[in-house]
Amino acid sequence: MTSALVVVALPQEAAHLRQRDVLVTGVGQAAAAAALAKRLAEGPLPGVVVNVGTAGSLDATYSAVLEIGYVTRHDFPYDAIAELAGADAVVRGYRLRSDRPPLPASSPPPGEVALATGDAFVNDAARPALTVTELGELSSGSVGIWVGEGSGGYFANLRVTPSR
User: Fold this and answer.
1) pLDDT average per 10 residues of sequence, the chain (164 residues)
2) Count of other CB atoms within 10 angstroms of residue 12
3) Positive/negative CA dihedral, 29, 31, 34, 38
4) DSSP string for 137-153
5) Is residue 18 part of a domain?
6) If residue 81 lies in a helix (H) or strand (E), which one and from where to where?
7) Domain of residue 13, residue span
8) How many domains does the chain have?
9) What is the structure's pLDDT at 39?
10) How many CA atoms, within 13 angstroms, populate the side-chain half-sphere of residue 37?
11) Which residue in 17, 10, 16 sits closest to 32, CA to CA?
């Protein structure tokens, strides 16, 4: 049997796990990447790494634990990269399956559960730092907002503006 390393951002996400090898990384992709790289470099290497966490959904029919089949970043300038590279399509994400390494993909495969992730860091912004303009046919969703413990950060001037 191979060992599993379970990776979570917050201690609350690991509170009910019975797993022995749990890595709490902190919130954000950079924190997660740095903590996981350090853990893997120090060894021993696990047989599998499982990322467990909480997220909002733009699809109200999802209300359980889901296996993600495609992952991308919503805040990456894919179109600008394609234009600079002179390419019609660029890798916009990865297909995920438990029986093979991630495969580059330019769009989610039909029927797969897709996860779009990203970070927005704000410090005294004079204009909106995060604007979601393209929800397609979806009419509702959620955004997770977090302020680091002990950071002294706070939320102000949060606004939802209906599209025109």
Assistant:
1) 80 81 85 89 88 66 76 80 84 86 86 75 59 52 57 60 60
2) 10
3) negative
4) T-----------TTS--
5) yes
6) helix 78-85
7) 1-54
8) 1
9) 93
10) 6
11) 10
